[in-house]
């Protein structure tokens, strides 16, 4: 009569047999310590604030420069060009002839 051998896969057997699939070094503690650096706990806010303040300053100066040379200066030049040859009396006479002004009726 043959004796039947029963085999039960336990957790320890599984870890010993298949650990190379999950932990190449064989030790999960040393592997995770080698791959993950320690997080910076002190001065994290101060370091990030320096970076973000510098970035915010540079972006705001860039926007101010673009507005000055892209909008304000051309607008000032357009007003200067308009009023260089502007004759208010000629404009008044044109509006008077068109009947726009109530205080100065057309002739």
From TrEMBL:
Transmembrane annotation, as ranges: 49-67
Entries under CDD domains matching the protein: CcO_VIc
GO CC terms, sorted: mitochondrial inner membrane; respiratory chain complex IV
Superkingdom: Eukaryota
Keywords of this entry: Membrane, Mitochondrion, Mitochondrion inner membrane, Transmembrane, Transmembrane helix
Pathway entry: Energy metabolism; oxidative phosphorylation
Cell compartments where the protein resides: Mitochondrion inner membrane
Signal peptide interval: none
InterPro entries (UniProt xref): Cytochrome_c_oxidase_VIc, Cytochrome_c_oxidase_VIc/VIIs, Cytochrome_c_oxidase_VIc_sf
Known function: Component of the cytochrome c oxidase, the last enzyme in the mitochondrial electron transport chain which drives oxidative phosphorylation. The respiratory chain contains 3 multisubunit complexes succinate dehydrogenase (complex II, CII), ubiquinol-cytochrome c oxidoreductase (cytochrome b-c1 complex, complex III, CIII) and cytochrome c oxidase (complex IV, CIV), that cooperate to transfer electrons derived from NADH and succinate to molecular oxygen, creating an electrochemical gradient over the inner membrane that drives transmembrane transport and the ATP synthase.
Subunit structure: Component of the cytochrome c oxidase (complex IV, CIV), a multisubunit enzyme composed of 14 subunits. The complex is composed of a catalytic core of 3 subunits MT-CO1, MT-CO2 and MT-CO3, encoded in the mitochondrial DNA, and 11 supernumerary subunits COX4I, COX5A, COX5B, COX6A, COX6B, COX6C, COX7A, COX7B, COX7C, COX8 and NDUFA4, which are encoded in the nuclear genome.
Protein family per UniProt: Belongs to the cytochrome c oxidase subunit 6c family.
Protein name: Cytochrome c oxidase subunit 6C
Organism: Taeniopygia guttata
């Amino acid at each position: 009569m043959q004796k039947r051998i029963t085999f039960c896969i336990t957790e320890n057997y599984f870890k010993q047999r298949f650990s190379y699939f999950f932990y190449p070094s064989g030790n999960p503690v040393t592997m995770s310590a080698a791959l993950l650096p320690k997080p910076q706990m002190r001065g994290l806010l101060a370091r990030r604030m320096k970076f973000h303040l510098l970035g915010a300053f540079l972006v705001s100066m860039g926007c101010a420069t673009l507005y000055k040379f892209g909008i304000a200066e051309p607008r000032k030049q357009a007003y200067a060009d308009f009023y260089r040859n502007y004759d208010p009396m000629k404009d008044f006479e044109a509006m008077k002839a068109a009947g726009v002004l109530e205080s100065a009726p057309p002739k």
